[in-house]
Amino acid sequence: MTQHDTSVAEGLDAHLAFARRMDRIDGLGHYRRRFVGLDTAATPAPDAPSIVYLDGNSLGRPTIASVERITDFLGTAWGSRLIRGWDDEWMALPLTIGDALGKAALGAAPGQVYIGDSTTVTLYKLARAAVDSLPERSEIVLDTDNFPTDRYVLAGIAAERGLTLRWIESGTTGGVTVDQVRAEVGPQTALVVLSHVAYRSGYLADVPAITAVAHEAGALVLWDLCHSAGSVPVNLDLDGVDLAVGCSYKYLNGGPGAPAFGYVRAELQPDLSQPIQGWMGAADVFAMGPGYVPATGIRRFLSGTPAIVGMLAMQDTIAMIDEVGIDQVRAKSVALTEFALELVDAWLVPLGVTVASPREHTHRGGHVTVNHPAMRQVTRILWEHDVIPDFRAPEGLRIGLSPLSTSYVETYDGVAAVRDVLRGILLGQAGLGSAAGL
User: Fold this and answer.
1) Active-site residue among 250, 364, 419, 423?
2) Rounded to whole angstroms, how far apart are CA atoms 164 and 322?
3) For the residues of 97-132, what is the DSSP string, one character each?
4) Is 147 assigned a catalytic role?
5) Among residues 26, 147, 237, 386, which one is catalytic?
6) Catalytic residue among 137, 299, 364, 398
7) How far apart are CA 263 and CA 254, in angstroms?
8) Which residue ranges does the record assign to the Aminotransferase class V domain (predicted)?
9) Which CATH architecture has domain 89-321?
10) 181 with 141: CB under 8 angstroms?
11) From CA 183, how far away is CA 44, in angstroms rounded?
12) Does the domain spanning 10-62+325-436 belong to CATH 3.90.1150.10?
C-alpha cells in the first residue's frame, strides 16, 4: 500500500493538509515512536509498506518498552531469579499495577483496583458478590445491546440465584440514558450493570448521574470500562462508583488476552464475598489451612495464581498515560474522532453511509462507528490491504483511534481507504478502486 495516495491531488486536498499540520503540532505525536512498527521516520519513503491501524479499541499496538520488559523478564526475573521472583515482586504485582492504573486512568485511590482474571471471570466475581450482598433484592438491570459477555454472565448469575433480569432497550446507534435507568430501578433492584462506552456505537454514558439514580433506589452499580479505560477519563471515587471491570488489551496495550482489572470501592470491600475462593485471596496465602479465610482489602478479590507474564506489558502504557495525563489523552481522542467524522461526512455519507456514533463529543467515546450494508465486505477487503478497521454486526464499521499511537494522517488514510473500497463495491468492483492506489 502506498501511503497518502488518494483520488484527489494532494496539493488540492485540504483534509490531508490539515492532517499533516495537526501531526506537526500534536503534543502527543512523539509517543507514536514508542510503539512497535512506528519507531521510524515521520514520513516514510513513498513506496514503503505500512499498516493503517484503526482497531486499537479492540487490540492496542505493542510498545517497544514492553518488548524490552518481557524479554528482560524471561532472561532475568524468571530466568535467573526463578521462584524467588514471587518474593521479589510478583506476589504484589496485581495490586501495585492496580494502584498505578487507578491513579493514571481511573480516578481511584490506592487499595481499590487489582489485576486478576479475564474480563468475563472478573465481571462474574464482582456481579455475584454484589447481588449476594443484597439477598432481599431480586432484580438485575442491564441493557439489550451491552457486550455479549456482560449479558451472558448476568443471565447465568440470574439463573443461579433465582433473580429477574430487567432489560433496558438500547439500539446499535445509541446508548443507555439516565431516564431509562430511572424507569427501571426500584426497591427490588440489587445491581445495575452498564458499559461506560457502548461497544458498537461508542455512546458515552453519564456515569455520575446514572450511579446516583441507582443509589437512590438502594442498588449497587457495576460499570464495564472496557472501551473507556485509557481513552476517556474515569473518576470512580469522585462519582461514587461501587464496582467496575475492564480489559487491558485495548487502550492499555496489554496484549491479546491480558488480564482484566477490577475495582471495588473501599467501603464495600469488607461486605462483599467473591464467589471464586482461591488461595491468592486468602488472608494467609501460605497457611494452607483447612478452611478459607478471605484477606482484608482488595486482595480478597484475587483467586488463583496471577498471570504475571500477561500483566507485564500494560505497565508501560499505564506509565505513559500517567506521564501525559488522561485529560490530554482525551483531548486528542476527541480531536481525532472529530476529524474522522469530518472525513466521513465529506466522503462516506454521499455514498449512503450513516453515522451510528453520537455527534456530540461529550456523548462519544474513543471510536466512531459508521453503518452501511456493504461494511462486512469493505472490512474484509481492507484487511487484505493492510488497512485494519473493525466490523460489528449487523453493518457497522468501527474506526478505533488510540490517542497515543494513532496519527491524523493515519486517520486520513484509513477513512480514504474505506471510501475507495466502498465506492468500488458500489460500482460493481471486487476490490479497491484504482484511484486508491492501494
Assistant:
1) 250
2) 41
3) HHHHHIIIII---TTSEEE-S-HHHHHHHHHHHHHH
4) yes
5) 147
6) 398
7) 18
8) 117-374
9) 3-Layer(aba) Sandwich (3.40)
10) yes
11) 55
12) yes
Within 10 A of 71 (CB to CB), how many other CB atoms are there?
10
Q: Is 18 a catalytic residue?
A: no
Catalytic site includes residue 261? no
Of 150, 224, 242, 413, catalytic: 224
| CA 73 – CA 28 distance, rounded (Å) | 29
12 vs 227: CA distance, rounded Å: 36
Distance CA 102, CA 63 (A): 20
Query: Is 124 an annotated catalytic residue?
Result: no
Q: Exactly one of 249, 261, 301, 339 is catalytic; which is it?
A: 249
Residue pLDDT tens, the chain, 438 long = 334 444 444 445 999 999 999 999 999 999 999 999 996 544 444 444 589 999 999 999 999 999 999 999 999 999 999 999 999 999 999 999 999 999 999 999 999 999 999 999 999 999 999 999 999 999 999 999 999 999 999 999 999 999 999 999 998 888 999 999 999 999 999 999 999 999 999 999 999 999 999 999 999 999 999 999 999 999 999 999 999 999 999 999 999 999 999 999 999 999 999 999 999 999 999 998 899 999 999 999 999 999 999 999 999 999 999 999 999 999 999 999 999 999 999 999 999 999 999 999 999 999 999 999 999 999 999 999 999 999 999 999 999 999 999 999 999 999 999 999 999 999 986 544 433 444
What are the residues facing 244 on neighbouring strands? 223, 263
| Cell numbers that stand for 26 in this block | 500534536
Using DSSP's 3-state secondary structure scheme, residue 371 falls into strand
Determine the Cα–Cα distance for residues 335 and 307; give it in Å rounded to an integer.
36
pLDDT in tens, 145-154: 999 999 999 9
Domain-by-domain residue ranges, the chain? Answer: 10-62+325-436, 89-321
